[in-house]
Amino acid sequence: MTPASSPSFIAALHTDRPAPDRAEKLALYGQFIGGWEMDAVLHREDGTTARGKGAIHFGWVLEGRAVQDVWILPDIFYGTTLRVWDPTIDAWHILWSDPMRQVYRRMIGRAQGADIVQDGEDENGTPVRWKFTEITAESFHWIAERATGDGAGWQRLVDFYARRVRA
Q1: pTM to 2 decimals?
Q2: Torsion of CA 97, 101, 102, 105, to 10 degrees
Q3: Cα-trace Rg, the chain
Q4: Distance of alpha carbon 54 from alpha carbon 38, whole angstroms
Q5: Could you report the per-residue pLDDT of 107-147, keeping only the tens digit for each?
Q6: What is the pLDDT of residue 68?
Q7: What is the mean pLDDT of the segment spanning 21-40?
Q8: What was the pLDDT predicted at 150?
Q9: What is the average per-residue pLDDT within 66-82?
Q10: pLDDT, tens only, 3-18
Q11: How far, CA to CA in Å, does 91 sit from each of 65, 82, 157?
Q12: How far is CA 161 from CA 3, 87, 131, in A?
């Protein structure tokens, strides 16, 4: 393919379906493909909360071999996640990037019962956990947690309550 005949960046990145050879495994995150609106609750260190409204957009990328999403909470963050299923570990590599706040996470995601749980570490090596729970075709609850200092439990950081947006 010559540069003049190559597809645009968006056309090369996005596709409208999962790769057939892994479609069943990709359904774990593929169920979220489309647009969502969300209500956010941010839990501060002092025990207070802040609230906001945002949007999430999920799409098929890389010839349907991955799911990419964009999470937008105005004035708080604007980031993207690349989610790639790895058959060698039967789990997902999760790569989050928020260039607005310079926050980056690498996690491993798996189904746990009816939920999806992603485990990783923050920049200080503290375990973090992100969960999709209460998943339906029209909504989900997303939770971010950090291990407590004593390692005995989890501290809630963020709750997102997402609702599907229909065109």
Answers
A1: 0.90
A2: -40
A3: 17
A4: 5
A5: 999 999 999 999 999 999 999 999 999 999 999 999 999 99
A6: 97
A7: 95
A8: 78
A9: 95
A10: 556 679 888 888 899 9
A11: 13, 13, 24
A12: 43, 30, 12
Structure tokens at 81: 């996640």
Tell whether the model's pLDDT for residue 1 goes beyond 50.
no
> For residue 73, what are its two tokens?
């909470």
Residue 65 falls in which region: left (phi positive, over 0), alpha (psi -120 to 50) or beta: alpha
Residue 9 vs residues 35, 65, 91, 130: alpha-carbon distances, Å: 21, 17, 28, 30
Domain range summary for the chain, segments of one domain joined by +: 3-165
CATH number of the domain located at residue range(s) 3-165 in this protein? 2.40.128.20
Side chain identity at residue 53, one-letter code: K
| CA–CA gap between residue 51 and residue 132 (Å, rounded) | 19
> In residues, how long is the chain?
167
